[in-house]
Amino acid sequence: MAERDSGDGEAGKKGLDKAVALKYNPAVDDVPKVIATGQGHLARRILEVAKEKDIPIHEDPTLVNLLAKLDLGSEIPPELYRMVAEVLAFIYRLDRRVAENSEK
């Protein structure tokens, strides 16, 4: 997930301020975990790695700010379940569309 910055700082020039990476495997994990957070250059690197590995990226500044406050490796708290579930639903729909298009 990413948040864009409209300021004049370095992040504003590159268009990115913060990024958070989540890991969730429903077969293994009870809830998603925060596996990376960063600002500026580190945020851009998180997104580069996601793109290299074909990991979906979703922009949600509010959620990014909340998740960025969590410790690395921590599970998302119950009060964020709904917001993260919406992101996961977005990703599942995207994956399904990609699969349907590849079958054609």
Radius of gyration in whole Å, from Cα?
14 Å
What does the average pLDDT come to? 85
* Straight-line distance between termini: 30 Å
The H/E string reads EHEEHHH
Which fold name corresponds to the CATH topology? name from scop
The largest beta-sheet arranges its strands as: 1-2-3
As a percent range, the share of helical residues equals: 40-55%
User: What is the domain total for the residues?
Assistant: 1
Oligomer: single chain
Look at the structure and give the CATH class: Alpha Beta
CATH superfamily: secretion proteins EscU
What is the correct CATH architecture? 3-Layer(aba) Sandwich
Beta strands, count: 3
Structural class: alpha+beta
Estimate the strand proportion: 5-15%
Main sheet attributes: strand count, strand direction, barrel closure: 3 strands, antiparallel
Low-confidence stretches: 4-15
